[in-house]
Design a protein that fits this description.
By secondary structure, the chain is of the alpha/beta class. The protein has 7 helices and 13 strands. It starts with a strand and ends with a helix. The model has no long low-confidence stretch (mean pLDDT 95).
């Protein structure tokens, strides 16, 4: 039986819809997982029962995380925030992390993982990181290569790609600053921005700053990220059945 992968959602501007891009669910399905969207429920802060239903969880892209969650006031370049989504995802992360469930974060997702583990963020890399190159192109297709990423050896990410340098797309203005507990940076862009993190512990916890879900159809190499995540979720599922 396919592992069930929970996918986080976001609220539309009217707050009438709890939704997510099909690129995430298509990529999970293509990798052998069964994607299930986890809705944002009004007034709910405990999502542990949803975690009991799934075998892995994917934290998706979207809003900026409210800086008060990592002890800062906002800079003027901060974009849209949603404390409702922040609290929903922190609850999901806490429950999944405590169960040692496979966790994969994309764009906002890598930032969510880092903040949840007591790390911090650059609220705006262009104003806070001197020498920053382009990371958020306009009028560029989401499946286009944009900049290079250097991957450290002896990491899960290197095991997945088998290369020290790849090209990715890029659509972000924030990034990891201070690393959270038991996390290491495993990839950087040429200007030093952290592009991937993973856990130092024996668990599948991986985050990337780019959007691989937009690349999997045109550039199948990025499906390896989802396949590895789904396989880890399958192993977790089998272990749970035994227990």
């Amino acid at each position: 039986m396919k592992p069930i992968i929970g996918v986080t959602t976001f609220l539309s501007e009217s707050s009438k819809y709890s939704t997510v891009s099909r690129n995430y669910t298509d990529s999970i399905y293509a990798a052998g997982g069964l994607p299930v969207s986890i809705p944002i429920v009004a007034g709910e802060t405990n999502y542990s029962e949803y975690i009991d239903m799934v075998d892995g969880i994917l934290f998706t892209g979207g809003n900026d995380i409210a800086p008060y969650f990592y002890g800062e006031n906002p800079v003027k370049e901060l974009h849209s925030m949603s404390s409702i989504r922040d609290e929903y995802e922190f609850s999901l992360f806490k429950s999944a992390y405590e169960k040692n469930m496979p966790i994969f974060g994309i764009c906002r997702g890598i930032q969510l993982i880092n903040v949840a583990l007591k790390g911090s963020l650059y609220q705006d890399i262009y104003s806070q990181c001197p020498g920053t190159l382009g990371h958020s192109p306009e009028q560029t297709a989401s499946d286009e290569f944009y900049h290079s990423v250097k991957i450290s050896r002896d990491t899960k990410l290197y095991d997945i790609f088998g290369e020290e340098r790849i090209f990715t797309n890029s659509f972000h203005h924030q990034s990891v600053k201070g690393l959270g507990k038991n996390l290491i940076a495993t990839a950087h862009s040429e200007d030093g921005i952290i592009e991937a993190i993973e856990s130092t512990e024996d668990r599948f916890l991986l985050g990337v700053q780019w959007h691989p879900e937009c690349m999997t159809k045109r550039h199948p190499m990025f499906l390896k990220l989802f396949s590895t995540f789904v396989q880890a979720s399958s192993t977790y599922k089998q272990r749970e059945v035994v227990l």
